[in-house]
Amino acid sequence: MLKRTVAGIAVAAILAGSAIPGPLEDGYAADKSGDYAKAVEMYRLAADRGNAAAQFNLGNMYSNGRGVKRNDAEALKWFRLAADQGLPNAQHNIGIAYANGRGVKRNDAEALKWFRLAADQGHAKAQFSLGLVYLKGKGVPQNSSESVKWFRLAADQGFAQAQSNLGALYAQGVGVPQDYVLAHMWFNLSASHGDEKAAKLRDTTAGFMTSDQIGEAQLLARDWKPSRN
Asked: Which parts pass through the membrane (predicted)?
């Protein structure tokens, strides 16, 4: 009897640890294969059960018109459900919706609120978006130093657009002392991700630098490593 009980527990443990496909995983598979209608069906099944990732993915389907007719208000509904569970991707998307008036009336203050919620969790895109908000003064007083802070946090994670913007601020001396070496470094890092505009800005910046400064900037870029959040 003891052997049977132990065996039963072992089997139960194995089954509990097995990766049995659920509606979210089925949704991922259908989405990847291009069966968007099936993906919507599976995401909705998981989303209705309160799964934040499924709610976010379903919001994306409505936002992009994949498997369903595009509906920004419906997308926002699902993003909000996921965001209320603390999902930073969803929080950032709500910020984008408020910033651009998609599915909701444009509201810069609300956009700022949602960007910050995601950015405070280390979400690189939200940190970049927050940097833009402060640079342009949307919903807050314009603050170049605060913009630099958020661009740097995103850039440190390897987010190419933030790296390019940070390079531009160093090149112009906006929010930071002008520093062509650091500008060149950040442009170079962004260019390494395929950003052609950053590559051109790097080369333009090099025209204001000595060969020693260029060498220093290249060394900094070579030794740079992304941070982890």
From this structure: none
